[in-house]
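Backbone geometry:
***
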Amino acid sequence: MRKLSFDTPEKALEFLLDGNRKFIEGKPEIKNYCFDSMLKSLEEGQKPYAIVLTCSDSRVCPEILFDTGLGELFCVRTAGNTIGPNVLESIEYAVKKLGIKLLIILSHQDCGVMKYALSAPLYNDCFENLIYQVQSVKHEKGVENYDILAKEYLEVCKHRLIVKSNIIKDALENKGLKIVKTYFDIETGRINIIS
């Protein structure tokens, strides 16, 4: 297992984006996912250096896309990377108890939740908690393309994390937490930063 430590969240982000480049080029460093080389070394605990909030879509696996091993990322996944109480508390735990300074919000191309949000009625009983958050962006910005909606929704996620959590807000303002919005292009394999 790699023992990694970064002085700043920016260096951790640079490292992860370099891992994504290796993934795209077909030259990953992490190849040996086996018990002895990976999990055995983590028996005494975890020390992840980044939190990744992303979608549950089976094509979006941060550990593979960033070329990381076990114990490196604290991943929180939910359909459409929507934020409910359990998601929020999971991220708060990673920030407060694990001291992680980098929080990546990762949306992606061809997201089923974004597609459904564009066509679903505004108030419906099906997937209500998932769709309502996304539809607020659709109606506020007049977005009609699901890939654009996924990018626009990143700002809603970031804002929601800060407004709903004193732990995250305090870490962002006083403890060096960095929140980065990113988008995974399935056609190219690239993860891009969305400013």
In short: The chain has a mean pLDDT of 90. The chain has eight helices and five strands.
